[in-house]
Amino acid sequence: MTAEEIRKLIASGMACEHITLEGDGRHWYATIVSAEFEGQRAIARHQRVYATLGARMHTDEVHALSMKTFTPAEWAAQAQ
């Protein structure tokens, strides 16, 4: 899968204000900003993103995905 394909899958499965993806075709690193993360711990946020990828995480289409997840407020604080 390409970075754009993964980005589109995530964006179609949840409302995101910002998504960046980098990787080598098997190992991916994502930064995702979504209001859906409000009040959630990191594990719940990651599970939410994994859910958007569905079986692709189990069939090795996406071998590894590391991510940083932020709420819009957390993301704005990062920029300062």
UniProtKB/TrEMBL annotation:
Top-level division of the source organism's lineage: Bacteria
Matches recorded under InterPro entries: BolA (IPR002634), BolA-like_sf (IPR036065), BolA/IbaG_stress_morph_reg (IPR050961)
Coiled coil (residue ranges): none
Gene3D superfamilies membership: BolA-like (3.30.300.90)
Regions that span the bilayer: none
PANTHER family associated with the record: BOLA TRANSCRIPTION REGULATOR (PTHR46229), BOLA-LIKE PROTEIN 1 (PTHR46229:SF2)
Homology family: Belongs to the BolA/IbaG family.
Protein's name according to its UniProt entry: BolA family transcriptional regulator
Organism in which the protein naturally occurs: Verminephrobacter aporrectodeae subsp. tuberculatae
